[in-house]
Specification:
By secondary structure, the protein is mainly β. The protein contains eleven helices and 63 strands. It has a 20-stranded mixed beta sheet that branches. Strand 53 (669-670) and strand 54 form a beta hairpin. The longest helix is centred in the N-terminal third of the chain and has 14 residues, at 220-233. The chain starts with a helix and ends with a strand.
Length: 775
């Protein structure tokens, strides 16, 4: 484009001006289009969509009208610029441009570029722009002028600026374009045989980014080595016929016979120690139904630059050109976040604010733990977590393979550190910096009640998290919370957790629990509802936010009719966690249990045990304890009354951990389990009671043996009664943190539904160049 610039005449264009001084935004946005013939991208700068301008990272420009944005959607403000420098060219120079292009839009370092001229007089716009090129000719990409956030959909509220990694931008005195410091190329993490100076800017032309080349071009000396080693890495896949302009093509309609027959991973090795991973969708070009080609082109020996990164390798990633800090921000493929650069929604929709979120809950039949799965990190990784309903925070293993460009340690003096109740600061970490090891970070003590190790120190951090939204009836859009706070644990702390679990999800009464963080992020009610499935083969559910909560077939709980019973939550002023800082209150959910009745007959109890005294006593709910645990005197009195009311049951030998078991041969079955005495947990009022039927009181331990599912907790437990997971199953329990109350439905079996009857739907699957596996 430098030769074309000689033929251009600069003049001042006078346009009418609109009053926009009161506009509240700091970013401009417009759409990008992928030309089906040239595969190049054009920008919309006027109200006439048929008038397009070729996007060029090197050249001067012609432009017109843009829109203001807050990063989510178009505002009502429009602005026309005047006294701006525009370039005029004869129509003959447009012949090589995409069909609808009437000019060139410069995005270079030049002071005549779009960005520089936008920011010259409008100080709200910083000297940054972000490109998001669509891979589809049917859908629009998007470009933002100014700082983030940059919201794309789906998933809802996904801010692409939160998942960027950065590397320095370099200047070449002979061109206006953008260069980055690349020291090598690796295939499957193994560097190709090319000296680092082969990519150097001063000696070999460097590595340049270009929007005027559709595919990445490598100088022949680099290209030949790269292709040779790529072929070696692509084992067992038959070659296909060459398709111009590509030299290496192969068949994709074959059955993979071996596990190592996969597409190699390609990374650009950056001078600052980072990597730019080229996603499979940016690596291969599907040229027909049966053949894909490596989308890199031989630039020949006399190529001006060592590598020129073309648009195909930039598609569906977010690229931020920060001219103030001279750095390039780049995301991994947006498909890993369930998103893309398609901006037809970005430029037209209003912000999507979910009213509630939902996660599945699975019962582990081996450990009897309840687990869930969320997606965390950049790129996203599925994270299995054991649920602790009273846990202070989420903690995750950071000691083994934690890799994320969006990981951010929480500083000691930050408000969130203070709100979390931390009493320690990690001033110096003696291992290399990385997740779990940064200096001057907020420190906490993650706890694993299932482990012999029990506790371990860890830094507090935040990272990107993705969960599903819901209308209460089914799963909705995936939404992104860009900075969910958690604590790093050590790998050894995973001992005793469900197989594959990488930490624990704390849902407790704290400012950093997941329910509070999700509610704060999306401004919905600080409530969550938990419905644990009694089956290890079907999922239960946790809702974050208010109802309705709907289960098949059309059983709905909503509003004040959510359940027939509410009871106040009681605050225990002393922490009951396995590890805590002195002075912190308990984050467990305590309720005001005043008595227990069996078939209406009161169990004689010492009332003092049901009160909280200096942090001891009281009643709480737990997903950590599989069965309800009672202080010894309570347990003995409880069992005595139960046996008196169950004279028709035949006692048999006990089965651990239970002390009282019965033959089920002559025990009738009902809709709500074995026909055994009904247990009422009476709350703050005699009219408010949690009724427990046979399905939640009796555990089938053998084919013909059932046991009373309550356990002796000893004579001096910290908490007198802990209502365990088994007694919560197939009961819908809502924790309302704003009103400090607990709502409960009693057994859903009475309504002919269960906790496994929420309508989960399959998530959208990412399309890849995968081979059919016969392994």
């Amino acid at each position: 484009m430098c030769n074309l610039m000689l033929a251009l005449l600069i003049f001042v264009l006078g346009l009418s001006s609109l009053e926009v001084l009161a506009q509240p935004f700091h970013t401009q946005v417009t759409s990008l289009h992928r030309d089906p013939n040239s595969s190049l991208h054009t920008i919309t700068l006027t109200l006439n969509p048929s008038e397009q301008y070729l996007v060029d990272l090197d050249a001067p420009f012609i432009w017109n009208l843009l829109y203001w944005t807050a990063g989510r959607s178009l505002s009502e403000y429009r602005i026309q610029y005047f006294n701006r420098y525009v370039l005029s060219a004869p129509s003959s120079l447009l012949q090589s441009l995409p069909a609808q292009a009437i000019g060139v839009a410069s995005l270079s370092w030049s002071t005549l570029s779009l960005l520089y001229q936008f920011t010259k007089d409008i100080h709200e716009i910083t000297q940054k722009f972000s490109l998001c090129l669509s891979s589809s000719t049917d859908d629009q990409g998007v470009i933002f002028f100014g700082d983030g956030p940059y919201y794309l959909e789906p998933p809802a509220n996904f801010d692409a600026s939160s998942v960027l990694s950065y590397t320095p931008l370099m200047k070449n005195p002979t061109t206006l374009g953008y260069f980055i410091d690349v020291t090598g190329i690796s295939i499957n993490r193994k560097a190709i045989r090319a000296p680092a100076n082969m990519f150097a800017l001063d000696k070999n032309g460097g590595v340049k980014l270009s929007t005027t080349l559709p595919y990445t071009t490598l100088r022949s000396d680099i290209y030949s080595v790269f292709i040779g080693e790529f072929k070696k890495a692509l084992k067992g896949i038959p070659r296909g016929k060459k398709v111009s302009p590509f030299d290496f093509c192969f068949k994709t309609n074959v059955t993979r016979q071996k596990k190592d027959e996969s597409i190699p991973r390609i990374d650009l090795v950056l001078g600052d120690g980072g990597y730019w991973t080229i996603h499979e969708s940016n690596l291969l070009k599907q040229v027909d139904n049966n053949v894909a080609c490596l989308a890199f082109v031989d630039g020949r020996h006399r190529a001006e630059h060592a590598v020129v990164i073309g648009t195909y390798q930039m598609e569906n990633i977010m690229l931020q050109f920060d001219l103030v800090q001279s750095r390039l921000g780049f995301s991994s493929s947006l498909s890993s976040f369930g998103s893309s650069c398609v901006s037809s929604q970005t430029l037209a929709i209003t912000s999507f604010q979910p009213k509630a979120l939902v996660v599945p809950v699975t019962k582990d039949s081996s450990t009897l733990q309840y687990t869930t799965q969320i997606k965390q990190r950049t790129p996203l990784v599925p994270i299995k977590l054991t649920i602790d309903v009273g846990g202070i925070f989420q903690w995750v293993d950071c000691g083994s393979g934690y890799v994320s460009s969006s990981y951010r340690p929480v500083s000691c003096d930050s408000p969130i550190c203070k709100a979390s109740g931390s009493g320690a600061c990690e001033t110096e970490c003696y291992s290399p910096p990385g997740p779990g090891c940064y200096n001057n970070t907020c420190s906490h003590i993650p706890n694993n009640p299932f482990s012999s190790i029990g506790i371990g120190g860890g830094e507090m951090a935040s990272d990107t998290t993705v969960v599903q939204s819901t209308d209460g009836r089914t799963v909705g859009k995936a939404v992104v919370v860009s900075a969910v706070v958690f604590t790093c644990g050590t790998t050894s702390l995973l001992e005793g957790l469900s197989a594959g679990a990488l930490g624990m999800a704390g849902l407790g009464r704290s400012e950093v629990s997941l329910p509070v963080q999700f509610a704060s992020a999306f401004k919905f009610s600080k409530k969550f509802a938990m419905c644990l499935s009694s089956s290890s083969s079907s999922n239960g559910v946790i809702f974050f936010g208010d109802g309705p909560y709907v289960f098949l077939p059309k059983v709905e709980f909503s509003g004040e009719s959510f359940s027939t019973m509410y009871t106040p939550l009681i605050l225990n002023p002393v922490s009951t966690a396995g590890s805590y800082f002195e002075g912190n209150p308990s984050t467990d959910y305590f309720i005001n249990l005043t008595s227990i009745k069996i078939n209406g007959k009161a169990v004689p109890l010492r009332a003092a045990l049901l009160n909280i005294t200096q942090g001891n006593g009281g009643t709480k709910i737990s997903t950590v304890n599989p069965y309800t645990v009672m202080e010894t005197s309570i347990f003995k009195a409880f069992v005595k009354v139960f046996r008196q009311e169950a004279m028709n049951l035949t006692k048999v030998s006990s089965v651990k951990p239970f002390k009282y078991c019965f033959s089920s041969k002559n025990t009738p079955s009902t809709r709500v389990g074995p026909a055994v005495p009904i247990i009422d947990l009476v709350m703050h009022s005699s009219s408010v009671y949690w009724r427990i039927f046979g399905a939640n009181s009796m555990v089938q331990v053998k084919e013909d043996v059932i046991c009373l599912g309550f356990v002796d907790g000893g004579s001096n437990p910290r908490t007198s009664i802990v209502i365990g997971g088994y007694q919560l199953e197939d009961n819908l329990v809502q924790i309302d943190l704003e009103k400090a109350r607990l709502g409960f439905s009693s057994s859903l079996l009475f309504t002919q539904t269960t906790c496994s009857n929420f309508n989960f739907t399959d998530l959208t699957k990412k399309k890849n160049f995968n081979f059919t596996s016969s392994a």
